[in-house]
Write a structure and sequence with these properties.
This protein has two helices and four strands. With 69 residues, it is α+β, with helices and mostly antiparallel strands. It is globular.
Length: 69
């Protein structure tokens, strides 16, 4: 499954790295691609291990605001 999320609060490469590293630690996340310019993330994950709310919670716990596209 793939989800695209808008992420508010990203302003630099460190933000991208923080979110990418945080999501890659989550079991079931297989791919993370973040577009800083458009402030969104494409995330591929295994539906049998987590859902979009789990992913959103991880990003929010890192200090960013999230909305679905």
């Amino acid at each position: 499954m793939e989800i695209v999320l808008n992420i508010d609060g990203m302003s630099c490469g460190h933000c991208v790295s923080s979110i990418t590293d945080g999501l890659k630690k989550v079991p079931g996340v297989s791919r993370v691609s973040i577009d800083l310019e458009h402030k969104n993330a494409h995330i591929s994950y295994a539906e049998d291990q987590l859902d979009k709310h789990d992913i959103i919670r991880v990003i929010e716990d890192l200090g960013y605001s999230v909305s679905t596209i």
